[in-house]
Specification:
Helix content is 53%, strand content 14%. The chain is an alpha/beta fold and 206 residues long. It folds into two domains: 91 residues, Rossmann fold, CATH 3.40.50; 90 residues, Rossmann fold, CATH 3.40.50. A five-stranded parallel β-sheet has the order 2-6-1-7-8, with helices on both faces. A hairpin with a 2-residue loop joins strand 4 and strand 5. Helix 1 crosses helix 9, helix 2 crosses helix 4 and helix 7 packs across helix 8. The N and C termini lie close together (12 Å).
Length: 206
């Protein structure tokens, strides 16, 4: 199944919890771009060099493990890819078409390993357009900023709200809602309530 939506709408928490509930594989596509961004910064690869980033992505496929573990080039980057430096740089890396093509191929490969919950920004339209269930998560901007505030140290809510606004503008080109996606507004729902609602959609689809 595919879960799409803007940053802070709850995609990662919902997808991770839903996968655990259903016994599906969980694939965080955003973590893949973050891992590549970390490696590019670590290796000194210019973030505006699409072909060089493409080569880096092909040479070092991102791997996943239990409990959200993420690795690239033999390095465990699970926590490092959530740092503010990566937040700021990942949109630059993700905008390169050649990078997205490599990542999408890898995402489809991972998704074929069995029943999966795949979350990101172009999942239901581009990565797995034939997914049995597609969900589009949304939330009030203020709520999205508060959620990010709980995840990030050192940044105020107002600063995070502005960061999310700018990110929405940058990500707009790669944020597409599938016409057959079910919208779920998470603004006033608890995590369990969102998971219950989407699990119900999966049950109906079966």
């Amino acid at each position: 199944m595919a879960i799409d939506g803007p940053a802070g709408a709850g995609k990662s928490s919902v997808a991770r919890g839903l996968a655990a509930r259903l016994g599906f594989h969980y694939l965080d596509t955003g973590a893949m771009y973050r891992a590549l961004t970390w490696l590019a910064l670590h290796e000194g690869v210019p973030l505006d060099d699409g072909p060089a980033l493409e080569g880096l992505a092909r040479a070092h496929p991102v791997t996943f493990g239990d409990a959200g573990w993420v690795a690239i080039a033999g390095e465990d980057v699970t926590t490092r890819i959530r740092e503010p430096e990566i937040d700021a740089a990942v949109p630059v890396v993700a905008r390169h078409p050649e990078v997205r093509e490599v990542m999408r191929a890898r995402q489809r490969e991972l998704g074929r390993s069995g029943d999966s919950v795949i979350e990101g920004r172009d999942i239901g339209v581009v990565v797995v357009p034939d997914a049995e269930v597609k969900v589009w998560l949304v939330a009030d901007p203020a709520v999205r900023a508060r959620r990010r505030h709980l995840e990030r140290d050192g940044l105020g809510i107002d600063e995070l709200a502005e960061e999310l606004r700018r990110r929405d503008e940058r990500d707009a080109i790669n944020t597409h809602r599938a016409v057959d996606a079910v919208e779920v507004d998470t603004t006033t729902l608890s995590l369990d309530e969102v998971i219950d609602r989407i699990a119900g959609l999966v049950e109906v689809a079966r």
